[in-house]
Amino acid sequence: MTAPRLALLASPAIEAQAALAQLEREFGAHPPAEADVIVALGGDGFMLQTLHRHGALGRPVYGMKLGTVGFLMNQYRPGDDLLARIAAAEPAVLHPLEMRAQTESGASVESLAYNEVSLLRQTRQAAHIRIALNGEVRLDELICDGVMLATPAGSTAYNFSAHGPILPLGANVMALTPIAPFRPRRWRGAVLKAGTEVRFTVRDPLKRPVSATADSHEVRDVTEVLVRESRDRHVTLLFDPEHNLEERILIEQFTV
């Protein structure tokens, strides 16, 4: 059986670059478009960067943690048989969120998010945001620092720090979570079906400007943001069987 061709990518971190040099000596260097598997060396930020840059190629991605945070990564263990680990890895299929943002200037900006789409106030003025689900207004005015819609993979990141729920993979749901809500005081968010179309409308955008961010892509001065889960696009992450992504999400729910 022919060994898979690996595209080796690394963050600028010293440890990641050193590991990259070692692995290139062992496996050679293939561009992502010509590889069978993409190996990402770094933290979660670099993994997201890799997915945004190369996700359309349809190659599975095996990450190894050589950065600050590595929830989406496997442990880096020098000396292990990397090809054997990849062959035994379990796949996790992720569907990104599709964001379409309208700006005050009339521009329409589209982007993808594998973790979350978040709306945040741009000034000291609290944001006033209307929320509609599948065309029906569910919350006429949320007064807050912001609000986000998170995927299950992203539910343990910014969403969790904002007291949103941790979502299991495969549940076909998304987390709608307010960020420092002021009114209504008792609203703590919602868990939505994955097919739900969420429309955020910024009320009084001139006095209370709001930005929208899809993972790390920020759009400022938005007036309306439409978000839905993509069913056509997906990426496949590979995880070691003893610590796959589903298990990590489960562990997070019992971590105190």
UniProtKB/TrEMBL annotation:
Necessary cofactors: a divalent metal cation
Pfam families per the UniProt record, alphabetical: NAD_kinase, NAD_kinase_C
Catalytic activity from the UniProt record: NAD(+) + ATP = ADP + NADP(+) + H(+)
EC number of this enzyme: 2.7.1.23
Keywords of this entry: ATP-binding, Cytoplasm, Kinase, NAD, NADP, Nucleotide-binding, Transferase
Principal subcellular localization: cytoplasm
GO cellular component entries: cytoplasm
Active-site residues, as the UniProt record annotates them: 44 (proton acceptor)
Chain residues that bind NAD(+): 44-45, 115-116, 145, 153, 156-161, 180
Family: Belongs to the NAD kinase family.
HAMAP family according to UniProt: NAD_kinase
Protein name per the record: NAD kinase
Organism: Thermomonas haemolytica
Gene giving rise to this polypeptide: nadK
